[in-house]
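step: validate -> pass
step: tokenize input -> pass
step: predict -> running
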Amino acid sequence: MAYSDISKSKLHFNSNYYVGNGSTQDRTDIGFKPDFVWIKDGTSANDNQIVDSIRGATKAWRTNATDTENTHSDGLTAFISNGFSLGNNTRYNQSGSNYRCWSWLAGGPSPAVTYKVVVVSDSGNKYRFRNSADTATFGSSAVTVDLQEGGTYTFDVSDSTVNSHPFVLGTSSGVDGSYTTGVTYKLDGVTKTYSQYTSGFSSATSRQLIITVAASAPTLYYNCSVHSGMGGQINTNTGHGSSNFDGSVQSRVSHNPLTGFSLVEYTVPSSGDFTFGHGLGAVPAAIFLRGGYSTDSFNTDVFHHRLSNNGIGVRLTLNTSDQEANAPKAFKSGTNSSVVEQQYDWYGSGRVNIAYCFTEKRGFSSFGDWTGNGFTEPGGHHIYTGFKPTAVMIKVRSGNNNHFFMFDEDRGQNGGRFYLKADTDETDTTSTDRVRFTSTGFQMSTGNDGVNGNGDSYVYWAWGQPIVGGPNNVPVTAV
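step: predict -> pass
step: emit ->
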């Protein structure tokens, strides 16, 4: 019996089809406000488009190309409560074209994040932030912090190093504590006024400043109400994502802990090996990583934990049909449940990268591998995921070069007849059954070397169907 903690999977991931109208339309059938949308025109030779909430609507990059981010003001124009809005750009909404879209929820519009704050001596006393496990302090003082409008952030300032430095928010640097919109002050678990908080700060055992960031909040500063020069700036962003201090470089993360998915943006440092925090709280099983997305042309690196050496020092490239290849600087041995390790010169100093990170969640997502046997149905491999898939992507990792094949439940024959390719702009392929979805996974229905060549090795990405239940060990569709 398979179980899941997720009661409604389609509130976190959905595969949809729609028909373009050549004008504008709102897709309100997604079921949630997505953070990551992958759109492909199945009728015309238009590119695969990726849009996410960290970079913002209208910003897209192509999975089947190496060029920089494009601005499509008439493409995906907004993320809305149950989906997204479209303009008349032919890549997204050509009249009469059939489109496939895959949508994921990351941290959503109302993330909740806790930061633990300490004070260090760094040319004077300065605030610094601890990592999420509270095992190390981030290496820079008074850093600029990214907070998301609509998010609720708890600054835990209980550490003894902060005793003499009441932590407050203002609209200017210095000792300004004037900003109180959406702010709650707590000492020893009791809500206080601003004056009670600052006057009783040093004698309290536990201390928290909690802020729910208002829409259109101004640029803020975190300060000591007594001593100037201790804090830094807070950017209150309409885009999604919040600062993460788990790596050696600061990242901006939008994370869905229930489904094990995170969006991550970070800047490559000027030298050496470095790490960036991914927010998953578990070792990544799969990552799509686009380097220098807004300024430079790079391959999209793909990490998968079932590549050789568990994916460490190895990659696929999403925009090519190539087999796995060595990439010792891309995904290094320090990659773990908190961070991904890289070397700065893989992309180059100052590049801003975007990563889409996944870990497996029982009854919802699975990222595995198999060796093909070349048989057609019923002898073709059955891959057990523990749920009926909504969407599956398959890529040969060794044995031959072939495409990233994308299947989903909307394209007939239990997902098997029609497919698209992530690494090309080709239209729906409708000629051959390759994969059939079952209640417990998916079945190879061909010996084609794209998905089941005899002796070839494959990896897959799969996300699940709606389930019977989830919490309290309610069984899912797989039995």
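step: describe -> Helices lie at 90-93, 194-199.
step: cleanup -> pass
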